Amino acid sequence: MTGLLVGVDYAGGRALDESRDYAAHAEFFRSVFEIGRRYKIMNPEKMRTAYAKLMYILQDSMQPQIQDILGFELVAPLVTVYSTLEAGGALGMLSDPMIDVATRECLPRDENGREKTRREMEAEIEAKDKATEILGRKYASERITADGVRQCLYSIKDNNSFLRCNRDPIDQAIVWLDELYGKHEEMAEEKEDSKSSSEGSGDEDDDDSSSSEEEGEVKEKKSVKDRFSWNEIKRLFWQLIEVIILFFKTIFMPNAADDAANKKDRYYGGSGYTTGGNGGGGNGGNDGPPRRPMGRIQSNRSMNCPTST
């Protein structure tokens, strides 16, 4: 803990090392650990090992022996949009109709998949910025500034973007699994039902067909979670991600498909893109296109802390 203060204030950290008066810097330590916890909540892929150590430190700090040494509680409540607005007396903003305009995402396509024009995008961005400024002035007071209100709105925007990037693809993948793989199972079940009904005769055939129809109706109601294990869902999801990545690489990197085929041809052999001559192998022949290394997709995602401090 002394090292944390030294990294921010060398003189203060040196004085703390001599005096061991941690209570004098209680607010600093509480805010540092609270920001770390809040950052992990909105960025689950970050701090995979450091966060576990952070939790151990906070758990140990709640022991009576440690609290006697520190002189204060190290764990502080998380700062959220609700708590910030409540402290500033601006909770009414959460029910204001204009908050939907101020916090919505300006996406290049609408709900029907139609690509928006540049004029439409500029109009949405202008309306969004205008609504943010209006709400900032409307709910600013002595207890919370207009910048504080705007920061809460930016936090809600970050949360919406986070959910769209991490939750919506999973929901869409489950829908696709239901639509695509569910049809194959229904066809297989209908084939088995027709085969079993053809083997019977007379009234037994009628009973079997009616029972098979009832079973088919029950099976049709089953969701993808009942038909697949989570391991299979994850495997199919990553296969879908590879297809999506290849699709975007084909658009933005036209040579990506050739590079992928050349790389596969180089490592696993096969005809690849060579035609005739001595080009039967993965590395043989001179008729195919020149070999190029695979390009890397750069990740541009960067999420900020979702709430104001």
Protein topology:
Blueprint: H1 2-8, H2 10-19, H3 26-42, H4 50-61, H5 64-70, H6 81-88, H7 99-103, H8 118-138, H9 146-166, H10 168-199, H11 202-220, H12 224-227, H13 230-252, H14 256-268
Helix pairs in contact: 1-2, 8-9, 10-11, 10-13
Gist?
By secondary structure, the chain is mainly α.
Structure description:
The chain is extended, with a radius of gyration of 30 Å. With 309 residues, it is mainly alpha-helical. It starts with a helix and ends in a 41-residue tail after the last helix. Residues 267-306 have low confidence and may be disordered. It contains 14 helices and no strands. Helix 10 packs across helix 13 (230-252). It has 4 domains: 2-70, no CATH class; 81-165, no CATH class; 167-224; 229-309, no CATH class. 10% of the residues are buried.
Order of helices and strands: HHHHHHHHHHHHHH
User: How large is the share of residues in beta strands?
Assistant: under 5%
Q: Could you name the ranges where pLDDT drops below 50 across 5 or more consecutive residues?
A: 267-306
Could you tell me the radius of gyration in angstroms? 30 Å
Separation, N- and C-terminal Cα atoms: 21 Å
